[in-house]
Amino acid sequence: MAKRFYWIKLMDSFFDDDRIKLLEEMDNGKDYVIFLLKLRLKSINHKGLVGMELNGTLYPYNEKMLATITNTNIDIVRSAVSAFQKLGLATKLDDGMLYMEQVEELLGSETDSAQRMRRLREKEKSNELSASQCDVNVRELPSQSDVENASQCDRDIDIDKDIEKDKDTEKEKTFTQKQVLQRENGKPPYDKILEYYHSILPELPRVAKLTDKRKKMINARWKEYNTLDFWIEFFNHVRDSKFLMGKTSDFKAGFDFLLTESTFYKTLEGNYHNGKKYAGLKALLEEDNAKQESVCASNDWSF
Fold first, then answer.
1. Per-residue confidence at 180, pLDDT binned at 50, 70, 90?
2. Following DSSP, what letter does each residue of 33-50 receive, concatenated?
């Protein structure tokens, strides 16, 4: 199997991001930015998760371990992680695992064969003169060196064809998360949605088995809301409801209750949200963004 290499695409607008500007203005802000980039690089082999893999299982790092693997002062680690979470640059999951936001959409990769193809292409201009010597003058008897050069050119052409084939194959394999889901003919990522339900709403009843009935409900909702970002926001939206979380009575919303058509849309519309009525989840998110902008304007960024 060809070896694969990963990297993060650092956009030229990275330092124009308001969150990065805020980080830089903090005490030790430059160290925070360097630490952020180190964590993103540490997470690229695990789709944004920062952890230590042992026997196929990923385990979270504690603060001391993060300080060690990134060569960062532990006090910087503590304050930086807190700042990252407040700015939406990282999320700490319930099991202690740190998830670096945006990493999945910034990932790039290629195989070693694709690298060889790039190196060959870089030599094309310098080899144009040598390639022209591969043309045999039919009026002259070719020398031994001419035969060897022609044979070598044929081999180079074969290699180029193989590399091009590898390149096309890699293009088919390298997709964003959204493109992968689209290529699966709209099939919902059942396990991922269930994982988000359990991690964001651990107080609610756990789903012991993903039955066909539950898959059918997920599939029905997925046809309209087919991004994982939506489901993260949806479950966080549920968490804001005292009624759904069982804080106003003995009732607690379960997975089936939330995914049933009528209650799903009532939840989106805010009917269970402590007497508040929203025009939908989109309006709720816009309201949250307005609050965040108001906080940013106050310049109160003491972490």
1. very low
2. HHHHHHHHHHHGGGTTEE
Alpha-carbon span 284 to 51, nearest angstrom: 33
Q: Please check whether residue 51 is in contact with residue 59, taking contact to mean a CB–CB distance below 8 angstroms.
A: yes
Q: For the beta carbon of residue 268, count every other beta carbon within 10 angstroms.
A: 19
Please give the structure tokens belonging to residue 201: 């709403």
Which residue reads 């990282």 in tokens? 90
SS3 92: strand
Nearest to 76 by CA among 86, 66, 91, 87: 66
44: which residues sit within 8 A by CB, 6+ positions away? 6, 7, 8, 103, 107
Q: Is the pLDDT of residue 163 over 80?
A: no
Residue 94 has pLDDT above 90, yes or no: no
- Residue 44 is predicted with a pLDDT of 80
Mean of pLDDT values over 285-302: 53
Q: Which amino acid is at 275?
A: G
Among 209, 212, 201, 299, smallest CA distance to 258 is for 201
Name the pLDDT band for 291 (thresholds 50, 70, 90): low
**pLDDT, average across residues 130-152:** 52
- pTM higher than the cut 0.85: no
Residue of 194, 219, 189 lying closest to 207 (CA atoms): 194
Do residues 8 and 106 make contact, with C-beta atoms less than 8 angstroms apart?
Answer: yes
Residue with tokens 């190196």: 119
Position of tokens 């009624």?
Answer: 243
Contact predicate 88/94, CB 8 Å: no
